[in-house]
Write a structure and sequence with these properties.
This protein has about 160 residues and is an alpha+beta fold. The chain contains four helices and five strands.
């Protein structure tokens, strides 16, 4: 069993918090618990869980698995903050969770601020959709010059790779 603290910020052990939900051994009892497990899944690179915990009624709701994997794996996850919840309790069928996920990717620190909607379908909470708020982005470290080698390791100049 993993004795490390859960990435979701609950101060519980991962093995007693989000891991059983991610691994399918337990259900998220609330919309907030599902949100926390989804954040932990990004930290732990559990991409299938992220996809499986979404409503996927139409092609418009399809998840780009490769882009999701890249975001998960290329990011350093700095923390989750739950700002507010509406409904989303054990006896509800809909809920809202506003949250921020702080992460650093390619040397740029960003805050993903979202108001997410959740639905309970056949007794299981799923992510429905969300609305993003913009935040100020803070660069960590020095600015990369356009003609320098790209920090992603491609060997190309930054302006021809990630700096586009």
């Amino acid at each position: 069993m993993d004795g490390t603290l859960c990435p979701c910020g609950s101060k519980k052990k991962y093995s007693e918090c989000c891991e059983p939900i991610i691994k399918g051994k337990a259900k998220a009892l609330t919309a907030e618990a599902l949100m926390r497990s989804r954040y932990s899944a990004y930290v732990k690179h559990e991409i299938s869980y992220i996809a499986d915990s979404c409503i996927r009624e139409t092609e418009d709701n399809e998840i780009d698995m490769e882009e999701t994997r890249k975001w998960s794996e290329e990011s350093i996850w700095n923390g989750l903050k739950i700002i507010r919840t509406e409904k989303g309790g054990e006896n509800d069928t809909e809920g809202v969770v506003e949250f921020t996920a702080d992460y650093t990717r390619k040397g740029i620190r960003d805050i993903h601020h979202e108001t997410a909607n959740f639905k309970k379908i056949n007794g299981t909470w799923v992510y429905s959709d969300g609305y993003l708020s913009t935040e100020t982005v803070h660069r960590e470290g020095r600015k990369i010059g356009r003609n320098e080698k790209c920090p992603c390791g491609s060997g190309k100049k930054y302006k021809q790779c990630c700096g586009r």
